[in-house]
Amino acid sequence: MNRIKRFFDTQRPRFSSGGKLEKWYPFFEAMETVFFASDQVTGRQGPHIRDSLDLKRYLATVLLILMPLFFFGVYNAGYQALRAAGIPVDFWPVILAGARIVLPIVLVSYGVGFAWEILFAAVRQHPISEGLFLTAMLFPLTLPPTTPLWQVALGISFGIVLGKEIFGGTGRNFLNPALTGRAFLYFAYPAQMTGDTVWIALNGIKETAVDAITAATPLVVAAATHTAGTVEKSLTGAGYTVSTLFFGLYPDSIGASSTLLCLIGAILLMLMGIASYRIIFGDILGVLATGFFLNLLATPASPPYMTLNPFYHLIMGGTAFGFAFMSTDPVSAPDLHTARWIYGFAIGSLTVLIRVFNPAFPEGIMLAILFMNVLAPLLDHITLRFRLKKRVPNV
Q: Helical H runs in 225-309?
């Protein structure tokens, strides 16, 4: 480490004020903080972490907790591809196949994301935000493994530039950048992103496409059921048992299918004080309360989806991933405790309502979080005004 430190110390004059590479100091500073902690723990601009951790270590912790989902995504993508191609699903061939599918998506996300971050940092002459490390990982984990690389580049560009940088960068964006990029791809290229059919990448696995891969996702199976009270049977008949949905070994977004790993990640984030337990528990309560309420309202003429056991909403699709890693974003979520409970509950409730009553959006969680991101400042404002009214006036 001493050699690395001496290297940065000798190169610093080139990038400092007056040096030949002065414009690229943000890039130099970003690379230095990969190896060494910054001596500026809290700056003049947000977000501010009121703890012994600086922002980089804070985000690195979340990134570390995301690694099991990344590796599971690699395994699952390779497993589904080999299985669909009729190739034995041995461990190492599965890992290699999954790596060929997932790693290019992640590398494009980081490469294009850093290019935009460096450009904005050089123009504005401010340090490169460490928030990109997390955004560039979250974004590909929400994508299907069949996403073309040019769409990955386009989506992360939209999320970084229009979702964050035009508002001033990390700490000033009111929308989650990763979800903003994902939503852009969802509406721009619905045929590849709606999730109406399973997502299995076969490029490089088999020369010709497999015609049999046209099965519906669990969310579409539930929405397409025509008989009340049989949604659970339809899911089981399609191979989506409770255990399959919980452990996540089925075609879905790269990192969003395993409810078990998302649950472990959420627990770690809450125990470490990184994620707000109020938001996560509010999310869960919103799903269960709305689901049970729809069960009570269901009649023979109602959509069969209304009769689905609410616990299925928690383990299907990207619900658990969204609750653990997206809704808890400290920048786009409310700051006040009461507002966080309302925010979380509303996200859970909207997720169920979108799924049940708007089949054009099978997932629901993405739109629910983005919609509540927009309302988060209003929730804080209303909560604060309510508190001020309860105070005893000075006399």
A: 231-237, 242-247, 259-271, 277-297
